[in-house]
């Protein structure tokens, strides 16, 4: 059980649990198995199955249900939620490369994002399309070697906040600003469409391997994070 005022963040190195792939698939709902099977590559099917089974096994610790019995609602772009009477447990999942992250809280809306850092030949085009003018200007003032990691810091911070709010990408990324600085614990700088939002949320970086960027967004300012590694089923 999560302590009051605490957000749990679980790291899932899913490739370490391939031996449990069938056990993981057995925990998924019919809709989840269908979605997993729709991926073209086996690696993507495995990542989806293991990360979603991990999510279910972690949520089971909070709602006194077997992992396979947990009912998760998701309609269109809406944020996934537990069905009543367990909807007070907030959670979010993200995965990229060999890593998945799960955030869980009993007190706050949460959003998490992780991205594997890779070369971006079209970095300038992507920044112009998705980032605010201020973010793009600051990004390209950095030395060239620092621009790609900074791009992913911006992206994960923005995505984590949108996921916490439940907006998906329906809210344009350029409508709000985040910091580029590494290790930031208060990265949300401006929300032009609703200025008061900047005081309602805190966006922080999460520990991650050197070739990844990860961020957590939580509604409220007075919370702490505990980070743990998932050991499997």
Question: Descriptors for this entry?
Answer:
233 residues; single chain; alpha+beta; 4-stranded mixed sheet; Ribosomal Protein L22, Chain A; globular; 3-stranded antiparallel sheet
Number of E-type strands? 11
Envelope shape: globular
Give the proportion of residues in helices. Answer: 25-40%
Assembly classification: single chain
CATH class: Alpha Beta
**Structural class determined from secondary elements:** alpha+beta
Low-confidence stretches: none
Q: Kindly report the spatial arrangement of strands forming the biggest sheet.
A: 4-5-1-11
The overall number of domains is 1
Largest sheet report: 4 strands, mixed
CATH architecture title: Alpha-Beta Complex
Compose a concise summary of this entry.
This protein has 233 residues and is of the alpha+beta class. It has helices at 21-27, 30-38, 42-63, 123-130, 133-139, 144-165; strands at 6-12, 72-73, 81-82, 90-96, 99-105, 110-116, 176-178, 188-191, 201-205, 212-219, 224-229.
Description of the molecule:
- The protein is α+β, with helices and mostly antiparallel strands and 233 residues long.
- Helix 1 (21-27) crosses helix 3 and helix 2 (30-38) runs antiparallel to helix 3.
- Strand 4 and strand 5 (99-105) form a beta hairpin.
- It has one domain (6-229): Ribosomal Protein L22, Chain A.
- Helix content is 32%, strand content 25%.
């Amino acid at each position: 059980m999560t302590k009051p005022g605490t957000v749990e963040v679980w790291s899932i190195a899913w490739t370490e649990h391939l031996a449990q792939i069938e056990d993981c698939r057995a925990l998924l709902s019919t809709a989840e198995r269908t979605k997993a099977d729709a991926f073209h590559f086996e690696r993507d099917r495995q990542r989806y199955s293991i990360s979603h089974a991990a999510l279910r096994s972690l949520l089971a610790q909070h709602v006194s249900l077997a992992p396979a019995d947990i009912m998760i609602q998701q309609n269109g772009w809406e944020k996934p939620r537990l069905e009543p009477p367990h909807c007070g447990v907030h959670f979010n999942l993200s995965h990229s490369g060999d890593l998945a992250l799960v955030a869980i809280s009993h007190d706050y809306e949460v959003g998490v994002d992780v991205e594997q850092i890779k070369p971006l030949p079209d970095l300038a085009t992507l920044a112009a399309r998705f980032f605010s003018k201020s973010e793009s200007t600051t990004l390209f003032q950095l030395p060239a070697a620092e621009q790609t990691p900074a791009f992913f810091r911006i992206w994960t911070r923005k995505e984590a906040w949108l996921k916490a709010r439940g907006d998906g990408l329906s809210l344009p990324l350029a409508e709000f600003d985040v910091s580029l600085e590494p290790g930031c614990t208060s990265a949300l700088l401006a929300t032009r469409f609703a200025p008061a939002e900047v005081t309602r949320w805190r966006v922080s970086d999460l520990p991650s391997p050197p070739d990844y960027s990860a961020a957590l967004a939580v509604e409220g300012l007075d919370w702490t994070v505990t980070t743990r590694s998932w050991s499997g089923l």
